[in-house]
Amino acid sequence: MKRVVVILALLALVVPFFAQSDDVTTKACTDAKLDAQKDINTTLWMGAGCLFGLLGVGAAYVIEPSPPASRLLGKSAEYVAIYTDCYKEEGKSIQTKAAVKGCVVGALVELALYLALIATGSVSVSTE
Q1: In a domain, 111, yes or no
Q2: What is the pLDDT of residues 30-58, one digit of tens each?
């Protein structure tokens, strides 16, 4: 009987710790995603994709945004680690999507200009 009481007492002490840890994880990741959505300049990355094509998309995928250090002051080490990882992941995703959109728009504009040049007779297409 004493073992059961001791086990229940230990569980009562340990379970809230795990529940709190899960809350910290969820809150840190949610905060990071929201902040990344506010911070990332999608116009810049669309422009990079439009002007540089696949190089712009590659740069958007490779470059990892970092969260401002001022947002992490006074936070626990666990919160900072989770926040930083989620921020970088979300930021990279936003950048890459914007660069791909810009790349597609750039390709469509190039195609339209080329077709306009062909239609006006400025460029000849040889079929030899």
Answers
A1: yes
A2: 999 999 999 999 999 999 999 999 999 99
Among residues 56, 80, 58, 53, the alpha carbon closest in space to that of 69 is found at 80
CA distance 38 to 51: 24
72-81 pLDDT, tens per residue? 999 999 999 9
Tokens of 93: 């995703």
In a domain, 128, yes or no: no
CA distance 91 to 35: 9
Are 48 and 59 spatial neighbours (Cβ–Cβ below 8 Å)?
A: yes
* Burial tier of 105 (Cβ tally within 10 Å: 0-12, 13-18, 19+): middle
What single DSSP character describes residue 69? Answer: G
| Nearest in space to 59 (alpha carbons), one of 67, 50, 72, 68 | 50
* Containing structural domain, residue 14: 2-120
Structural domain tally of the chain? 1
Which SS3 state, helix, strand or coil, does residue 104 take?
A: helix
Q: Is residue 62 part of a domain?
A: yes
